[in-house]
Amino acid sequence: MKIIINGETRETSAKTLANLLADLDYEGEWLATAVNGELVQSATRTKYRLADGDRIEILSPMQGG
Questions:
Q1: Is 64 helix (H, G, I), strand (E, B) or coil?
Q2: Domain boundaries of the chain, sorted by first residue
Q3: 1 sits in which H/E element
Q4: Rg of the Cα trace of the chain?
Q5: pLDDT at 29 (0 to 100)
Q6: Which fold, 2-59?
Q7: What pLDDT score was predicted for residue 15?
Q8: Which of 35, 36, 41, 62 is 20 to 30 A distant from 47 in Cα terms?
């Protein structure tokens, strides 16, 4: 299926948001995720089913200063 991750169209076979994050090597409770503009809590990522055309935003904290 085709989805949009942080503005970039990609193909994936991941069925859930948790599967997608693992495929992309994004793992950890500290990530912020949203699908189609709605926040998805880390506790529900394993149950959150992805659909063709979903828009996913993945945010991770950055160090700087």
A1: coil
A2: 2-59
A3: none
A4: 11
A5: 75
A6: Ubiquitin-like (UB roll) (3.10.20)
A7: 97
A8: 62
